């Protein structure tokens, strides 16, 4: 009885410490005129594909002939990226949840690379007299493309529209550690672990779990998170650290429910650019081949780095990774992204409500970290390293002892090894 009481008291202190740290990273609640769901954007038809890719690669001088090589992914899907329909559905689900809670703040949608563009949405909001805007990005993890670039999108748009001194724009924090973000992955993985044994390709053998996220250049991974905190992150990378923390929490819950934990690792996908520039590894396809070599008879890919089933999920995982698994004779399942799962939608509205004055918002709680992420990021957080620049890759010894790599998964060391 005493031992149980001590453990309970310790857990209570840990929760209090986490809550205190989370609150220290919180901005004061305020009044907001509008919420904008902000995303990457995608083409809506064959004629949109090349103009869209020009937007994505603007400033890099890539000729249309090269862009057509990438366009094949969209061409195979009728020239339509599923991301736009998914964001429309998410915006509608968020609005429904907000209204159910009595939050009447309008919620709009804006994109970085396709209509509706950020600048156009801000211009319209200003014309409507709505000058205090809260931005919710469709990206859960820290990094340049997944966080800072969204803030830059709005900074550039305010400059372009001449509204810098007339509008206030703030961004919702990263939410990789939200219960509502993790729950859909846990549920999907639990289902997949049962379903994969029913596939014809499955033999009576181990299943390898692969948590997949978008790869980035090593130098970008190393500049994710605040500079003064990087010695606290696995390999000095907030992006890798957060991905491992979320994946580990999901597997802890799986193990708690089933009594055993399958082998798992963090893998990456969708790398692009010069092969001379090192990007985060291992690639998902290499990891699938390695799983077969190790005697696995099935692989389950969990797209932990994504909030919806957009093009890089349905092409790089549902097409290429599935083909690799087939070539290796492995059973294969890719679990769903959060999408409009009720727990995810509810969690996102929690994040909004926590920033709104006069609301009885749920407490700021992290499911897998010491405290939630910052509402206001430091100036040097997730800076973009100029293309062509290089920095040493971190070694395994640079990870913090308090946050070890998953036991028994040697391949994941490639993420943080030279």
TrEMBL record:
Annotated positions binding Fe(2+): 214, 312
Enzyme class, UniProt record, top EC level: lyase
Region annotated Disordered, chain positions: 1-25
GO biological process terms on file: heme biosynthetic process
GO terms of molecular function: ferrochelatase activity; metal ion binding
Subcellular location: Cytoplasm
SUPFAM superfamilies: Chelatase
Its EC number(s): 4.99.1.9
Pfam families given in the database record: Ferrochelatase
CC terms in the record's Gene Ontology section: cytoplasm
Pathway the protein takes part in: Porphyrin-containing compound metabolism; protoheme biosynthesis
Catalytic activity: Fe-coproporphyrin III + 2 H(+) = coproporphyrin III + Fe(2+)
Sorted UniProt keywords: Cytoplasm, Heme biosynthesis, Iron, Lyase, Metal-binding, Porphyrin biosynthesis
List of residues binding Fe-coproporphyrin III: 81, 150
Protein purpose: Involved in coproporphyrin-dependent heme b biosynthesis. Catalyzes the insertion of ferrous iron into coproporphyrin III to form Fe-coproporphyrin III.
Annotated family: Belongs to the ferrochelatase family.
Protein name per Swiss-Prot or TrEMBL: Coproporphyrin III ferrochelatase
Organism: Kocuria subflava
Gene: cpfC
